[in-house]
Amino acid sequence: MCYSFNKETNRDEFHADPRAYCQKFALDQDLTAAVLDADVLALLNAGGSIYYLAKLTGILGWDMQDVGARQSGITREEFEARLYEARG
Amino acid sequence: MARIIGGITTSHIPAIGAAIAKGLQQEAYWKPFFDAYPPVHDWLAEHRPDVAIVVYNDHGLNYFLDTIPTFSIGAAEEYHNEDEGWGLRPVAPFPGFPELSWHLIESAVDDGFDITMCQEMLVDHGFVVPHQLLWPGNDRPIKSVPVCINTVIHPLPRPDRCLALGHAIGKAVESFPGDEKVVILGTGGLSHQLDGERAGFINREFDLQCMNAIVDDPEWIARHSILDLVEKAGAQGVEVIQWLIMRGALLGDITELHRNYHIPISNTGAGLMLLENTR
Asked: B-side interface with A, Cβ within 8 Å?
């Protein structure tokens, strides 16, 4: 499903009715709930790849710092601070 | 014979493409990154390579997870970029060099590397951003050959095989019946992890070790397993295997002319290196 988001018409269709879009790809209840919640960890655990999931989170307007923060359960500011800490 | 005059490593993060599109190069966040590139521009302007062999990975534009070749080489007249899903405007097509592509493919297969050949191939930010960084503006006086590596879904190719593939590419270029000057780009990296609870992992010490080793001791990197690299460089930091392919193709005397390392660009430790190859 996420691969389909390369096309703008598909992103628009998802945006208009996310649940219907999930049904079109025959996602089960758990997966549909994870997509609707943008629960990236759950989608990874279900076998998703971050490069394709990033196309889903991109529709929500999230960049990779937003995605990182959500996965770590911290704020975006805390996540960015973690990146800068790597400078040592 | 054609010859490889040098190798360049660079990150290929999509946020860089977005920054270029918005003209943010001199903003505080981006300046230390973009300001490292002019010495490489000067070298390219002086030596004027005819061809760029671009070692990169696709991130879900040309390939879906159902079919991802371990090693694939483009053999098209030109390569097109398309919408990758987050609204970056596609850039103009890149001229190819099918004669060299087929020679690389035939030579590498003869050397024991079972290459997938792609006579049509969409190129994503992994290929596009390095072009934008190294040849800014719309005038790119080069032809390109994409060499696409699976770093997306395991199993990934062993690092030592990547170094050996680089050797095979280097040998192939030298047996190409032309007088082209070739530059080879190892793109991606350095350390980063985008997925899971470990997202945001960057390993400065390991990155700097890799930058030293890529000059003097690429076998040190090649002795790591893929899982070693996942542990030390992060799940997406395994892209350093694309640096190994670049380095393997440099068969002459290596001179390091330039390097820069900067944390963070997006979630990544960004490494730039220029290596001259003299035969």
From this structure: 15, 59-61, 64-65, 82-87, 152-153, 194-197, 199-200, 202-205, 235-236, 263-264, 266-267, 269
Which residue of chain A comes nearest to B66, CA vs CA? A3
Verify whether the Cβ–Cβ distance B196 to A44 is below 8 Å.
yes
The answer, yes or no, to whether residue B50 has pLDDT greater than 90, is yes
Report the pLDDT value the prediction gives residue B120, as an integer from 0 to 100: 97
Residues of A with CB under 8 A from a CB of B: 2-3, 5-8, 11, 40-41, 44, 49-55, 58-59, 63-65, 67-68, 71-72, 79, 82-84, 86-88
ipTM score here?
A: 0.95
pLDDT tens per residue across span B2-34? 999 999 999 999 999 999 999 999 999 999 999
Chosen CATH of B3-278 out of 3.40.830.10, 3.40.50.970, 3.30.565.10, 3.10.310.30: 3.40.830.10
d(CA B114, CA B3): 23
Question: How far is residue A32's CA from residue A52's CA, in Å, rounded to a whole number?
Answer: 16
Q: How far is CA B42 from the centre of its chain?
A: 20
Other beta carbons within 10 angstroms of residue A73's beta carbon come to 10
